[in-house]
Amino acid sequence: MSTPLLQVDDLASGYGRVEVLRGVSLTVNPGEIVALLGSNGAGKSTLNNTVSGLVPAWRGRVRFDGVDLTNAHYRTVVQAGLIQVPEGRRVFPNLTVLENLELGAFARARERRSANLERVLATFPRLAERLKQLAGTMSGGEQQMVAIGRGLMAEPRLLILDEPSLGLSPLLVEEMFSLIRRLHGDGLSVLLVEQNVAQSLDIAQRAYVLENGSLRFTGTPAELLASRELKQAYLGM
């Protein structure tokens, strides 16, 4: 059996004295889309930030391709190829689209920046028309393209997408999930952290449901949807 690309074991973390994650374990295998579902406050972003080296782990282990990255510096995490596109896009509003994208290659794949930029602009043709525009003047959907493009500039081995459909119109949500499917088709592994249950389960191979910092469910989308209790109590379906 192949080594998981991402392996999280009994992870706990929080802020100050408040424990947010309580013994969370999950895996993402090479070539998978794994959905992490849960309501606001469930601990999804805390998990992302702990895995990414932005929030310290209180206990447990984070391994990436077999290498222990628990409490590693976030730059070490990026250099390993574990890239997060954070919730809320967080583009640099006073920098141009081009400058935002180029920052994605600062810590990883800098020598292939030009080739990767061509690939990103082929993925997002709309950005090619707006390279000199300040990112802060763009629409929410366009800013999400910049944020994901910035992540792709680092040649991710695993891309963590935190609420990529948040605040987008229904049409743009459809486009966003089509894009994730396309990226996966190109061989990219994805940890998709979302509240949009139906769309996420439609493209994921496996799913986890997080509730109050603990895992409530692990399994395939079909297994999740077969549970009436989970559908009603945790997924709002």
Description of the structure:
- The protein is of the alpha/beta class.
- The longest helix is centred in the last third of the chain and has 16 residues, at 170-185.
- It is globular, with a radius of gyration of 17 Å.
- The chain contains ten helices and ten strands.
- A hairpin with a 2-residue loop joins strand 4 and strand 5.
- The protein has helices spanning 44-51, 74-80, 97-103, 113-123, 125-128, 140-152, 170-185, 197-203, 221-225, 228-233, and strands at 6-15, 18-28, 33-37, 57-64, 67-68, 82-85, 158-162, 189-194, 206-211, 214-219.
- Helix 3 packs parallel to helix 6.
- The strands form two sheets. A six-stranded mixed β-sheet has the order 6-7-8-3-9-10, with helices on both faces. It has a four-stranded antiparallel β-sheet with strand order 2-1-4-5, covered by helices on one side.
- The mean pLDDT is 90.
- It has two domains: 1-81 and 160-237, P-loop containing nucleotide triphosphate hydrolases (Rossmann fold, 3-Layer(aba) Sandwich); 93-156, no CATH class.
- The protein is 35% helix and 27% strand.
